From TrEMBL:
Keywords: Signal. The keyword Transmembrane helix does not apply. PROSITE patterns: PROKAR_LIPOPROTEIN. InterPro entries: Divisome_Glycosyl_Hydrolase, DUF4985, GH, GHL10. It comes from the Bacteria. This is Glycosyl hydrolase family 10. It holds the Pfam family GHL10.
Length: 437
């Protein structure tokens, strides 16, 4: 009798554990996913042809990819589907290929991908609307949107983003309500047009960098946030002594306000898109370098993580604008050649961002360390997929395999950017090896 009772109790316990484990899987449907990005412009010619789409979807499936991200809104602000809001991209660069508008590329990706058992996500570059190298895109072509261009505060003074030809992305100002409404309308149209789309992954939901945006409109909105006028703008934020930036008395408040702008848009977008398709996977891409990511006005951490206890740039309120809890899927750029933390100990030089921020190399300047850092600050609130920029490993296929294996070890799976490099290097076997379980 005691044996029977013990057996029943054991069975109940085993069943309970199994149910909990299964429930966990259902709560996080994208655990153990391997994501491959298909960039819009780098692959424009290739994916104007159905047979190419068929071939590369099959190749992706064969090597262990589970999820494909189709970039449908590159940095020009044009789109690769029949939008009634945004201009449609029909050609790119010097290529003579013209997009055949008689068939829908994204619809075809979804249809053929689903036949293979792949999840298909669409990616859109949000707060950017022009390519500075080609003077092309929405903020170049549409006079009604010229004032959307972000204004940078540089050592030489105020300068429009489109004058900065060393930068390819013509970023737009997310502080402008009309910018946010326009970008949200495109996202809503996209999700409405493709009810079978598995997910949307946002990109460039951010400011250009620490130098932006210093337009008069941003000044007024910051004053409204503070509840008082700024007596010395922009010096109360920061000033320059030569090319050296000096923080002003409102610097931390400025960083907090910028993070609130991005936080609020993320939550607004989630609510709007889930309202159209409740099953849609709502995702985001950012870099993985959290200690420097205030540079672009983004706090991708959990609200339960308080960066002010660790970093002197964060105010006590900065934690309120973490948005990890809003995401169903989070991909990060763990874009380092060094894979293991031990590899960084061999180096001592500083890393510098475009805006001038500098930091000594630390463990998080590795694939391993950065993945651990992102998981630490997001605190399990969203499944994280550590990502690689394949071009960094050109000529070093073994390092790429090692990095891919590290992504899978230290996060829920992996993200690979971009398929064009896999094709150019012929690294399909390397992908397969890196994704082995």
């Amino acid at each position: 009798m005691r044996f029977l009772t013990a057996f029943i109790l054991f069975s109940l316990l085993f069943t309970s554990c199994a149910v909990k484990k299964q429930q966990g899987k259902e709560d996080k449907p994208f655990v153990d996913r391997n994501i491959l990005w298909f960039d819009a412009t780098a692959n424009f010619d290739r994916f104007c042809h159905k047979d190419s789409i068929d071939y590369y979807l099959r190749k992706s499936k064969e090597v262990g990819i589970t999820d494909v991200v189709v970039d449908v809104k590159p940095i020009t602000g044009e789109v690769l589907y029949p939008s009634k809001i945004a201009p449609v991209m029909t050609s790119w660069g010097e290529s003579k290929t013209k997009k055949d508008l008689s068939w829908d590329m994204l619809a075809y990706f979804i249809e053929q991908g689903h036949k293979l058992g792949l999840k298909i996500h669409a990616s859109t570059n949000v707060f950017v609307a022009g390519h500075n190298f080609f003077d092309r895109g929405v903020v170049y072509d549409d006079p009604s949107k010229f004032h959307w261009r972000t204004t940078s505060y540089l050592p030489e003074g105020m300068k429009s983003i489109t004058e900065q030809k060393n930068k390819y992305s013509a970023m737009i100002n997310p502080v402008l309500k009309e910018v946010r409404e326009y970008e949200l309308s495109i996202l809503k149209e996209l999700v409405s047009m493709y009810p079978k789309l598995d997910g949307v992954i946002l990109d460039r939901v951010r400011f250009d960098n620490l130098n932006a945006d210093f337009s008069e409109h941003s000044k007024k909105q910051f004053e409204a946030y503070l509840g008082k006028p700024i007596t010395n703008f922009p010096a109360d934020i920061y000033s320059f002594e030569g090319k050296v930036r000096k923080d002003g008395p409102l610097f931390k408040e400025w960083l907090t306000w910028r993070s609130k702008i991005i936080h609020d848009f993320i939550y607004e977008a989630r609510a709007a898109l889930k309202g159209i398709n409740p099953k849609l996977v709502f995702g985001d891409y950012t870099g993985s370098w959290y200690p420097l990511y205030y540079d672009v006005g983004v706090n991708f951490a959990s609200k339960e993580y308080d960066p002010s206890k660790e970093f002197d740039w964060a105010s006590a309120d900065y934690k309120n604008y973490g948005y990890a809890e809003a995401l169903d899927l989070f991909t990060t750029g763990n874009y380092y050649f060094e894979v293991e933390k031990s590899e960084i100990l061999k180096k001592s030089e500083e890393k510098a961002l475009e805006s001038g921020l500098k930091v000594a190399q630390e463990e998080w300047y590795t694939v391993e360390g950065s993945a651990e850092l992102v998981n630490r600050v997001t605190m399990g609130k969203t499944p994280v997929y550590a990502g690689l920029y394949v071009e960094q490993y050109k000529g070093h296929p073994e390092q790429f395999i090692k990095a891919l294996q590290m992504c899978r070890e230290k996060s829920e799976g992996s993200m690979i950017f971009d398929i064009v490099h896999i094709i150019n290097y012929g690294w399909w076997d390397q992908v397969k090896e890196g994704l082995k379980k």
